[in-house]
UniProtKB/TrEMBL annotation:
InterPro entries according to UniProt: DUF1848
Protein's recorded name: DUF1848 domain-containing protein
Lineage top rank: taxon: Bacteria
A Pfam entry, by short name: DUF1848
Length: 310
């Protein structure tokens, strides 16, 4: 099974000690997002974890712990954008994050660190020219440190709509997307990057941009050298191309405070959950309670029993 760590929060940035304790103990308890009393026990044995996909904006706290992943295939989805504090409130400076990206790639290889430039949003300050300029700066800095970039465009989730209105952010029009992506594609090509979209309906093949999969069969097979028999994840959005996975994160636990975040519904909830954090607990928020209902998640490796791919 593939482990997603995590679409719901930034485990490398805030919870790496907890994560490695979970690997050591061999399991994690993950609450049902709709009923926090119902927990799934996810086993983390290297025999059944085919790959771990990390999602992060700042994995600096993990850099000295990567040796603990030696038994697991893994790669990182690393978001690097150029927004200011009005959009991404609590991130380190861009140049510092670029340096962290390079350091990570030097440790694990460029095929295990994917650059995410998403979500792309437009207003009077963050114009198409703004994105082209900063995309070019970041791409040039990352040349040789990654082989891929994934882009997506802002979604107006109900709980962020008022914030979007306040910052005068609207959905991108098709003409804006095409104009922007034509330039981004040229920049990506100049820097030896494959450019793909994440969960987008629009076709951009004329810009040499294909639909991508963040949890990617081809990449996992390349990293492991084994044939993966996995299906598309039916629990994601219709346009998402990702393989099936199990996410071990919890909503409302990321402290970066990004305006566009779908996984954070309120600052108050994040603060409350952070106060309950115990790095030795089997679950991310709080300790195990007598009222918790735990069920073992059926799990198996998705690798083919046939010979290795290479």
């Amino acid at each position: 099974m593939i482990i997603s760590a995590s679409r719901r929060t930034d485990i490398p940035a805030f919870y790496s000690s907890w994560f490695f304790n979970r690997l050591k103990d061999g399991f994690v308890l993950v609450p049902n997002p709709r009923n926090s009393k119902q927990l799934s026990r996810i086993f983390l044995s290297p025999d059944i974890v085919d790959c771990i996909v990390f999602w992060t904006k700042n994995p600096s706290s993990m850099l000295h712990k990567l040796v603990k992943l030696s038994e697991y295939p893994f790669y990182f989805q690393f978001t690097l954008t150029a927004y200011e504090a009005d959009i991404e409130k609590h991130l380190p400076a861009l140049q510092k994050r670029i340096a962290i990206f390079k350091q990570l790639a030097e440790h694990v290889g460029q095929d295990r660190v994917i650059w995410r430039y998403d979500p792309i949003l437009i207003n009077k300050h963050y114009t198409i020219d703004y994105h082209i300029d900063f995309f070019n700066q970041i791409a040039s800095s990352l040349r040789g440190y990654t082989d891929s970039c994934i882009i997506s465009f802002i979604d107006d989730y109900p709980h962020i709509q008022q914030s979007l209105i306040k910052e005068d952010i609207n959905r991108l029009q098709v003409v804006d997307i095409l104009n922007l992506c034509s330039s981004l594609s040229e920049i990506a090509s100049d820097n030896q990057l494959t450019l793909q979209t994440c969960a987008e309906e629009i076709e951009l093949l004329n810009c040499n941009i294909s639909h991508g999969a963040c949890i990617d069969k081809t990449r996992i097979e390349k990293i492991t050298g084994r044939l993966l028999l996995a299906k598309k994840d039916k629990n994601q959005r219709n346009n998402c191309q990702c393989l099936e996975s199990i996410d071990i994160g919890t909503y409302d636990t990321c402290s970066f405070g990004c305006l566009y975040c779908y996984a954070t519904t309120s600052k108050r909830k994040v603060q409350a959950n952070k106060r309950l954090y115990n790095q030795c607990s089997p679950k991310l928020v709080g300790d195990l309670l007598e009222t918790d209902i735990i069920k073992d998640k059926p799990m198996r490796s998705l690798f083919s029993l046939q010979n290795e791919l290479f």
